[in-house]
Amino acid sequence: MTKHIFVTGGVVSSLGKGLTSASIGLMLERRGLSVRMQKLDPYINVDPGTMSPYQHGEVYVLDDGAECDLDLGHYERFTNGPLSRDSNTTTGRIYRSVIDKERRGEYLGNTVQVVPHITNEIKAAVRKLAEPGVDVVITELGGTVGDIEGLPFLEAIRQIPLDIGRQNCLFIHLTLVPYLKAAGEAKTKPTQHSVGQLRQIGIQPDILIVRTERDLGREACEKIALFCNVERNAVIEEPDKEFSIYEVPLGLVDHGLDQIIVDKLALNAQPLDLSHWRELLHKVRNPEHEVTIAVVGKYMQVRDAYKSIYESLDHAGIANSARVIVKRIEAEELQQQGPEVALSGVDGVLVPGGFGMRGIEGKIEAIRYARECELPFFGICLGMQCAVIEFARNVLGLEDANSTEFVADVAHPVICMLNEQKQITEKGATMRLGAQTCVLEPGSLAERTYGTTVIRERHRHRYEFNPAYRRQFVDAGLIPTGNHPDGHLVEVIELPSHPWFLAVQYHPEFKSKPPAAHPLFAGFIEAALQYNHLRVQR
Ligand code: GLN
Asked: Which of 460, 464, 491, 507 most suits a substitution to test ligand 1, by most atoms within 8 Å of the C-beta?
């Protein structure tokens, strides 16, 4: 029988519920259990694909093309259980499905209501992951207790123990205990209120994970346990980790969280082995080298806008025993300052994905500088498209080259809309999405870096390299070295005359893990280290 863990949050948002859920997944997997992770998001968008990074941070893409919440990125980086479209469900998806059923007449004769129809649909979305062979499903509920839109989800997870037995379910609640400097103490009242709200709905948490700025001490923990009706040993402190997010699972395990979960759910688990994770942290703590990478983008103030890119750079640092310092550069500022100033002291330039025209010229300037100064360059999705535009303008002499995303009737549309996109009018989930096969040119930088000729990588775009210009680019030295198997789409370009200049139409950042850096990120950082070596000698 599959057991269920529900993770809810209270007091404030941004407590790191995703990271904590992923950490629980990691520790259970490292006790030999088969785990599935899931996120329920109470907003009404069917998926986050139509939201701006300012609203939502990065949109994470899965192999099956699902556009997801970025917490799924934490899940994939920390755990190994497969994720799919069913791993992220929103209010919009639930309602869409219920309304479709209503139109098909599946509820004929009935009034369709939040309880039981919406709640049944939510329960089915949770239970769907409880396939044979799965020991534990971990379901994280987005938002905080008290949000109006979260209520149907809380009601649904309240009912699940009635269906499958209370002993098969575990409720974990994450809260904040703020430290009030003026009072000189930690305040437990918001946590008490948050748990009170949960209990009003009918959910008694089994475990409280308490986020704190500084150690709470025995007394505060005892008070929380008493007032929240939770066993003392099940009140677990999770102090801020300033050094690395990889410390989170280790801190929770030090408080015995894995054993408490195993005991409460009566799981048949092996002893914990987190040695690989400790090794990882050791490497992060003791780097031998240091390298500075400029990420030139549009949402540099939004912490989570390029989440997976920053994480992948960290993984590549670990693989190269290096600390990667990221210099976040607003493309528009780079354009004003000039690349010489903005990029001074950096060892590599990465231009990530994006949409819309703002910042484009700054990105193109950064790429020109990297190409001319033999500075390692890595372009991703829009970053590749900008590299193509830059080369067309400054090497091929096609001065007004551009993407038709930015100028519809441009004279030289070196980036143009994919054929398959031309008839599409809807914006939600209609891009070229998910894992696609790509064939790499033997002997190319891409092929040598991957160590293989056939790869599968995840996509999310509407525009592509215009094949009409292929010959011109090749003749001038910018080579498409990765192509769709039937040859009609360019997926990788590189400049063999440059030490490391490579750009890809897909998103490699969605397939990098802390103990297994993505080969392109690892290769990029290796090249940046070599550049750094020369720069320091100079
Ligand atoms: N806006 C570009 C396109 O749609 C690039 C998308 C991206 O970088 N993810 O093709």
From this structure: 460
**59 close to 68: Cβ distance less than 8 angstroms:** yes
Close Cβ partners of 42 (under 8 Å, ≥ 6 residues apart): 90, 91, 141, 142, 143, 147, 149, 150, 152, 153
Q: Which residues are catalytic?
A: 381, 507, 509
- The pair of structure tokens assigned to 475 is 């003749």
**Percent helix, strand and coil across the chain, each to the nearest 5:** 40, 25, 35
Q: Closest by alpha carbon to 290, among 264, 312, 313?
A: 313
For 378-419, how does the pLDDT look when each residue is reduced to its tens digit (9 = 90+)?
999 999 999 999 999 999 999 999 999 999 999 999 999 988
> Which atom of ligand 1 is closest in space to residue 353's alpha carbon?
8
Contact 322, 290 (CB under 8 A): yes
| Count of other CB atoms within 10 angstroms of residue 290 | 13
E-state strands within 331-376? 348-351
User: Going by DSSP bridges, is the β-strand pair 67-68/169-177 parallel, antiparallel, or unpaired?
Assistant: unpaired
Task: Say yes or no: CB of residue 462 within 6 Å of ligand 1.
Answer: yes
User: Rounded to whole angstroms, what are the CA distances from 15 to 145, 210, 350?
Assistant: 13, 10, 29
Distance 387 CA to ligand 1 centre (A): 13
The answer to whether residues 72 and 304 touch, using CB atoms and an 8 Å cutoff, is no
How many Å apart are CA 308 and CA 115, to the nearest integer?
37
The token pair at 231 is: 């066993």
CA angle 190, 191, 193 (to 5 degrees): 65
DSSP letter string over 499-531?
A: SSEEEESS-GGGG-BTTB--HHHHHHHHHHHHH
User: How does the average pLDDT of the chain come out, rounded?
Assistant: 95
Distances (CA, A) of 70 to 65, 132, 137, 250, 429: 14, 27, 19, 22, 16
Indicate if ligand 1 lies below 6 Å from the C-beta of 509.
no
Does ligand 1 lie within 6 Å of residue 379's CB atom?
no
User: From atom 5 of ligand 1, which residue's Cα is the shortest distance away?
Assistant: 382
pTM: 0.95
Say what the pLDDT of residue 214 is: 84
Which of 60, 350, 355, 380 is the best mutation target for the ligand 1 pocket, counting ligand atoms within 8 Å of the beta carbon and taking the most?
355
Contact at 8 Å (CB) between 504 and 450?
A: no
Confidence class of residue 506 from pLDDT cuts 50, 70 and 90?
very high
Q: Which of 491, 283, 265, 303 is nearest to 384 (CA)?
A: 491
